[in-house]
User: Fold this.
Amino acid sequence: MGHDTVETPNLSFGRGGQPGRGTPYAQYVRLEQLHSLQHPRSKEPAELSFIVTTQVMELLFDLLRHEWTIARQSLREDDLTAALAALRRGTHVQDVLVESWDLLATMTPQEFNSFRPLFGEASGFQSSAFLHLEFLIGNKNAALLNMYDGMPEVRAELTEALRSPGLYDEVLGLLARRGLAVHAKPSEQRYRPSEEVAAAWRRVYTEPEFAALQPLGEALLDVAERVTRWRQRHLSSVKRTMGAKPGSGGSSGLTWLRKAAEQDVFPELWTIRDEL
Assistant:
C-alpha cells in the first residue's frame, strides 16, 4: 500500500538551511515596511481602519494611473487592442476603489470626530496620486499645483501631467487618424465638451465604417461611470460620517463633492445617448 505524502512549504531560505532575512514573499512585497506604516494618533479603534483604507486607496490610485498611462500610450501608437486591455484592467481597480468606501461609510460621527482633530489640515483632497488621475481624465486645474510648493518633485511631476495630453486627448487623436473630423487640441484647462467631438462619436455609433471604434467608446463609458460611482460614494460616505462640516483641507465639504459628482467624464459619449 502506498503512503500518502504531505507537502509542506519551504520555511527555511537561508544558506545551509539557516533562516534568512524573512521569507522570499516578505522580501518581495516588503511586508516589514508595509506593516510598519500605520500609526494611529488616538485610542479610537476606527482610526486604524481609516488609515489602512486611505493607504490602500493610495496604492490603488498608483495602479490605476499605471493602467491609464499604458492605455494612453497604446492609443498614441494606434494599438487599440492594448488600450482596451489596459482600460479593462483599470475598471477592475476602479471597482475595488468604489467598494473600499464600505470600510469607512459606517463610521459614526462620534468615532470620526474622536480622532479628526489629530490630523489637522490633512485631507484626501491633497493626494497627488489622485490629482494625477484627475488630470489624466481631463479634469485639470493649474491652481491646485500650489498645494505642492513645498514638494518640488511632486509639483514638477504634476506640472508635466497638466501640460501633457490626457487619456481622452489621445482618444480624440486616434479618432482623427481614423478619418473622423476631430481637431481638439490638448489643453492645460479643464476639458470642455465640443459639438465636433459629439458629431464624431455619433458617426462611430451610427456608421458601419467606424463601428470598430464602438468598443473604445463603451470602454471609456465604463471608466467614466466608475469615476462617477467613486465620487457618489465619497459624497454619501462624507455626508453620513461628518455631515455638512467644511473639509479638513479647507474645502466646502459636501458642496464641493456634490458638484464633482455631477460632472460627466468624457461628456460627449453621454450626450449623444439622447439621439441613438
